[in-house]
């Protein structure tokens, strides 16, 4: 929070929309600090595999709606899961992998190759595969043909394109990828 000035400002700007124009500035600043604290918790869970590994997932993570995924997979054409940046999507992916699902997730890659490799290894150790946003279309369509679960964190438009929708009373670009891949497959 203290050192990421650009990120801090982006979070505050988003919170002003969410909390409304009547929200006092001290509330916006307080909530922004909590956003960064929660991101820190995510990193601790992500890199703390021993503490937040199989036993943690089996004890504390419930999959709600698993029957819908099973129903889609029974048709033999894969399944698409679309979530948002709420809590730790990676724990959800690991929970599905623990239950024996083949998972391919689409994620933005880190610009630093060594950091990217660290994330790749951590994700692979939890039993799921991640493809970069760039070039994901073909890989996702192929994965669905292999009856795999394809996962998106689909509220954040990364890359070019997007479709404009009204979100929280303002125009916002949402990604088209999940819908285009569903149509193509």
Question: How would you portray this structure in words?
Answer:
The protein has 185 residues and is α/β, with parallel strands linked by helices. Helix content is 51%, strand content 16%. The protein has eight helices and six strands. It has a four-stranded parallel sheet, sandwiched between helices. The chain has a two-stranded antiparallel sheet with strand order 5-6. Helix 6 links the parallel strand 2 and strand 3. Helix 1 (5-19) crosses helix 2 (25-47). The chain is globular, with a radius of gyration of 18 Å. The model has no long low-confidence stretch (mean pLDDT 89).
Question: Characteristics of this structure?
Answer:
185 residues; alpha/beta; globular
Distance between the termini: 41 Å
- Biggest sheet strand order reads 1-4-2-3
Poorly predicted spans:
none
Instruction: Let me know the number of strands.
Output: 6
Query: Tell me, what's the shape?
Result: globular
SS element count, helices: 8
Estimate the strand proportion: 15-25%
Helix share, percent: 40-55%
Q: Specify the oligomeric state.
A: single chain
Order of helices and strands: HHHHEHEHEHEEEH
Mean pLDDT: 89
Main sheet characteristics:
4 strands, parallel
Radius of gyration: 18 Å
Class based on secondary structure composition and strand pairing: alpha/beta
């Amino acid at each position: 929070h203290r050192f990421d000035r650009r990120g801090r400002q982006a979070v505050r700007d988003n919170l002003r929309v969410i909390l409304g124009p009547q929200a006092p500035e001290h509330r916006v600043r307080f909530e922004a600090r909590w956003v960064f604290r929660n991101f820190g918790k995510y990193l601790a869970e992500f890199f703390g595999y021993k503490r937040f590994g199989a036993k943690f997932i089996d004890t504390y993570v419930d999959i709600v709606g698993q029957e819908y995924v099973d129903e889609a997979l029974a048709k033999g054409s894969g399944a698409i899961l679309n979530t948002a940046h709420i809590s730790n999507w990676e724990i959800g992916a690991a929970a599905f992998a623990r239950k024996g699902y083949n998972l391919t997730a689409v994620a933005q890659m880190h610009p630093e190759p060594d950091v990217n490799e660290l994330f790749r290894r951590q994700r692979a150790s939890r039993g799921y595969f991640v493809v970069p946003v760039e070039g994901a279309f073909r890989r996702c369509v192929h994965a669905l043909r292999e009856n795999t679960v394809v996962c998106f964190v689909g509220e954040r438009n990364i890359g070019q394109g997007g479709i404009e929708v009204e979100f929280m009373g303002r125009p916002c670009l949402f990604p088209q990828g999940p819908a285009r891949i569903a149509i193509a497959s």
